[in-house]
Amino acid sequence: FGDSITQFSFQANGWGAEIANKLARKCDVVNRGLSGYNSRWAKIVLPRLLDSPNSADNNIAAVTVFFGANDCALEDKNPQQHVPLQEYSENLKEITRLLASAGVSADRVIFITPPPVHEPAWEKECILKGCPLNRHNSAAGQYAQACVQAASQCGTDVLDLWTLMQKDGQDYTVYLSDGLHLSQKGNQFVSQHLWELLESRVADLPFILPYWGDVDANSPESSLLCNHLFCVRLKAFLPLEAPPVPGCRVLLCQILVGGFRSRRAGSCGCEIVRRALLSQVRVAAGVLLDGVHPWPPCAVLGGGVARVGGLGTGAGCERGRDLALLLRGQGEGRGPADAG
């Protein structure tokens, strides 16, 4: 959600396109960049955007809020886009409140400050449009600082482009195409630093539909036409101590509509949440899931593969609720088992 720097981010080599590529089969990245808009206009249109079908079911993993490049326009040179500094700060807070009212908590919001302004280059653009220079880098810095402060007060993350692009006296002009908007290097810069903030928010999300190698060639429908059903492949299962019931092991993780939620450990691995369902049962560190993906409902099979069905909303599971998967095995608990 932002101005032209967000709107243009889906162009070739844009930062938005790069983020969308990283999240292929995990998230749809929805571009709501509005060229020329400031934070005053943004807070007015945001409720309308949140009512759109793409925002349904509170299924938003993260939101970037990227305003300020127009707000910081000089009042006497560009009164239409200018927003006073204090109002800009309050607008960011109001945007956070509006997102919260739609179910998007502050920990899923990332503010992005305006980038620096290269005045000589931007002045050339202004002259071509028949107007005087209407932005100063010092003013952009004030709005960037206000954005950082608002993020601290709202409890959101913030990507301070204005500071990072000028860190250690580096030549920030290489990040700008016209003194205001981003160059290819600027887009790469934003993508790299934004991903550092986004990755932890999306790493746990499941991939949509099975990997091609997991599709049953003899019966593809059984692999592809399933809903809220998951396959859990156990790579290792090492109990720390004897459980209260012989042959039982407890795995504790979280379930989301569409897949298990646990910390990613590689391209297709998850780490089991390291806490016990019962005080006398503990899960060993290093227990890994080899993969989690949709699968038809089945009983647990031998060979270290546990296939579990019926874990969707129809079975009473809610997003974010803890799910205990109890494996009852033979002998050491590593043989064929029931799942419950």
In short:
By secondary structure, the chain is of the alpha+beta class. Helices cover 29% and strands 15% of the residues.
Given the helix and strand composition, which structural class is it? alpha+beta
Number of strands: 12
The helix/strand series, from N terminus to C terminus, equals: HHHEHEHHEHHHEEEEEEEEE
Radius of gyration: 25 Å
Q: How far apart are the first and last residues' alpha carbons, in Å?
A: 43 Å
Q: Mean pLDDT, nearest integer? A: 74
CATH topology title of the largest domain: Rossmann fold
Low-confidence stretches: 227-340
Number of domains: 2
Task: Characterize the biggest β-sheet.
Answer: 5 strands, antiparallel
* Form type: globular
Q: Numbering strands along the chain, what is their spatial order in the largest sheet?
A: 7-8-9-4-10
CATH architecture name of the largest domain: 3-Layer(aba) Sandwich
Query: What is the class of the largest domain in the CATH system?
Result: Alpha Beta
Fourth-tier CATH superfamily name of the largest domain: SGNH hydrolase
Number of helices: 9
Keywords:
340 residues; alpha+beta; Rossmann fold; 5-stranded antiparallel beta sheet; 4-stranded antiparallel beta sheet; 12 strands; 15% strand; globular; hydrolase
